[in-house]
Design brief:
This protein is mainly α. Helices cover 79% and strands 0% of the residues. It contains 20 helices and no strands.
């Protein structure tokens, strides 16, 4: 029998709790890059070995997401979310205790496993507590963790690493997650099965059924194109500001990070609110907001890359990122809305795999390769093309959304 809702399972509490956990998710993920120079110096690593620390995380994250999507229908979502949180927090602490490269590499790979577990089930877990009319705004709030958590990861990792060393940085950002494991474990979803026994009685969906969901497929492709652009920009923009505008690397990182945080908050919240408003008028509202966000952001992105002045570059970059972040809540909400409850975690697992495999797992290296053969400015001009591709997929999805939403309502 489904458990009765408790005080710990009120919608606001669950949103606040999972938002806090998602912030820790991105803090733990990005803190590594803030202490790269310290790790390189102490362990005498090559840039290739240093880069593999990030690759180990991404590879385990990609490969494990489909597994946790499948397990979501055999174990309670709160169980998988809490287990993932415990695993990546312990792995982050283990990274802080590592004294050799192999131990640090293994720890970062395990961080990817834990975050894959949380990432596949958490959006669906939140969706169970809110009506469809509010989902765009709510999911946007949840994904504020991307710009804010990433910035905190750089800031905390950099500060703690500078003051206390990189070992202490990992220890101090890993421990807080352990304090939230039990609250997440005891989340109970009103009206939904919360035990393995109840879940086994539900229908057993499979991954192949997602291939016939055209709205899901085009939304995932749109997000992959967007992730390709954002991932490439995230890695190369500080270097671009250094090479083309003469900013030192430290100042370039601070300026780019500040712009990303502020534009990310504004764009994510505005996109979610607009998506909810348009969705009440049309079933394609979320896709419309995302498509126009991509289109409006493209000329500003081109301007940012081509601007001869640093002020013009940064101003245009702020506008571009604001519009690009419009899609964060709406497109994730589309994935929730076009899939029935048993399929949601599996849908996010497939989405996670493809947006990273086709997106930021590829673009940084590709842009670097093109930069070696041409110029970094020319190389970065691929990113607006990817954004246009994302817009095209969103407009294409408008053709399929009515039929796919009708199937869910049957």
């Amino acid at each position: 029998m489904p458990s009765e809702p408790t005080k710990q399972s009120t919608p606001r509490f669950v949103l606040a709790l999972l938002l806090a956990v998602n912030l820790l998710n991105y803090i733990d993920r990005q803190a590594l890059y803030a202490v790269f120079p310290l790790i390189k110096s102490e362990l005498a690593l090559s840039d290739t070995a240093l880069g593999l620390l990030g690759s180990a995380f991404m590879l385990s994250y990609l490969l494990c997401a489909p597994l946790f999507g499948w397990l979501s229908n055999r174990f309670g979502r709160s169980t998988l979310a809490a287990g993932g949180l415990a695993l990546w927090s312990l792995a982050t602490v283990a990274a802080g205790l590592a004294t050799v490269y192999s131990g640090l590499l293994a720890a970062r790979a395990v961080v990817g496993v834990g975050e894959a577990s949380f990432g596949t089930v958490s959006p669906g877990l939140i969706a169970d507590f809110f009506t469809k009319e509010r989902r765009g705004k709510i999911i946007s709030i949840f994904y504020l963790a991307i710009p804010v958590g990433s910035a905190l990861g750089y800031l905390l990792g950099g500060y703690l690493g500078r003051e206390y060393g990189w070992h202490a940085a990992f220890l101090l950002v890993g421990v807080p997650g352990l304090l939230l494991v039990l609250p997440v474990w005891f989340i109970r979803t009103p009206g939904q099965p919360s035990s393995a026994v109840d879940l086994d009685e539900a229908a057993s969906p499979d991954y192949l059924s997602l291939a016939t969901n055209r709205s899901f497929v085009v939304t995932t492709l749109a997000m992959a194109a967007m992730t390709f652009a954002i991932g490439g920009l995230a890695q190369w923009t500080p270097s671009f500001l250094n090479r083309m505008h003469g900013l030192d690397v430290g100042r370039a990182n601070i300026l780019f990070g500040g712009i990303t945080v502020i534009s990310g908050i504004i764009g994510t919240l505005v996109g979610g609110a607009l998506g909810d408003r348009l969705q009440r008028k049309s079933r394609a509202g979320f896709l419309t907001v995302s498509a126009w966000g991509f289109l409006l952001g493209t000329p500003f992105l081109v301007w940012s890359i081509c601007s001869p002045t640093v002020a013009g570059c940064l101003g245009a970059l702020f506008c571009a990122e604001t519009f690009l972040f419009f899609n964060t809540g709406p497109l994730n909400t589309v994935i929730l809305d076009v899939n029935r409850h048993p399929l949601r975690a599996m849908a996010f697992a497939v989405n996670i795999f493809f947006i990273h495999a086709l997106g930021d797992a590829v673009s940084p290296a590709l842009l670097g390769w093109l930069s070696d053969r041409t110029d970094l400015r020319i190389s970065l001009l691929i990113t607006p093309v990817a954004v246009i591709v994302a817009a095209v997929f969103c407009f294409l999805g408008r053709r399929f959304i009515d039929a796919d939403l009708a199937k869910v309502a049957e």
